[in-house]
Amino acid sequence: MEELFVAGSEKSKMTAREKVKVLRRLMERAGVHQGPACFDALGAKLIESAGFPFCITSGFSIAASRLALPDTGFVSYGEMLDQGRLITEAVSIPVIGDADNGYGNAMNLKRTVKGFIAAGFAGILLEDQVAPKACGHTRGRKVLPREEAVMKIRAAVDARRESGSDIVIVARTDARQAVTLDEALIRCKAFADAGADVLFIDALASVEEMKALCQVSPNVPKLANMLEGGGKTPILNPKELEEVGYKLVVYPLSLIGVSIRAMQDALSAIKGGGIPPSGSMPSFEEIKDIVGFNSYYEEEERYSTSTNQKP
């Protein structure tokens, strides 16, 4: 079986262009491929260490962790790009970047695509909501007119070509909640015809609706969003998702959700006069290893001289 990515020190040499190739090869392979969502570089590194072949940034989680605000359009293009660059630099697995609605019209979106390419993303997720956009599983979703939404995907394809990149374009529609399922399916077909590489309808409400999406443009991979903790879409395991017809599956809230609960529990323990129990957190030695102290010390030895050696 062909290896999708290289282990060891060679991983750090993988370029953004190579990461795109890895993601495209992944989409050609059989089965469903899981990609948890991250909101910072440490989370992405943990995802990679756990053996996942790709990850995706979560706009919901970045808004929460960076701003302590809801995912209702507060995060700007610059903030998302800055956070994304730190994430892509931390790992060698491909990262799909959540670019919201492209932060404006078709011209703004082209700048967004080129910026995400320069930041090292292997894929970019673009949606058709009007501003201010929000999480697709929340109330009050509104989408652009179909013609404008399709034109923005064409603009993304043009930006990719102009950049000499092959970044994977994930086209998302929120029309299922904003309009109807039929409108969402029509939009997905139009997105595929415009050059999108992956299709995604957020907040589908049943397995039957998920199957309907997977019948649209059958040669174009589909992405499933398993929103944990009570979203609108049924939670299926990877085998079930493969049977429905999906190729990629993401988990947007797992890392931010468990982080929130863990921090609440730790603060409760401290307020009660103690510290978090040993089983609830890694040891100091484990934390140092996770964030890279041991690797740092090993590499530091390569540059040791007689004047800076430790006594």
UniProtKB/TrEMBL annotation:
This chain's source organism reads Flemingia macrophylla
Recorded hits in InterPro entries, A to Z, give: ICL/PEPM (IPR039556), Pyrv/PenolPyrv_kinase-like_dom (IPR015813), Pyrv_kinase-like_dom_sf (IPR040442)
- Database matches in SUPFAM superfamilies: Phosphoenolpyruvate/pyruvate domain
Q: Which reaction does it catalyse?
A: D-threo-isocitrate = glyoxylate + succinate
Look up the coiled coil feature and give its residue ranges. none
- Please give the Gene3D superfamilies that the UniProt record associates with this protein: Phosphoenolpyruvate-binding domains
- The name of this protein is Isocitrate lyase
Q: Which GO terms describe its molecular function?
A: isocitrate lyase activity
Query: What is the top-level taxon of the source organism?
Result: Eukaryota
Q: Name one Pfam family in it.
A: PEP_mutase
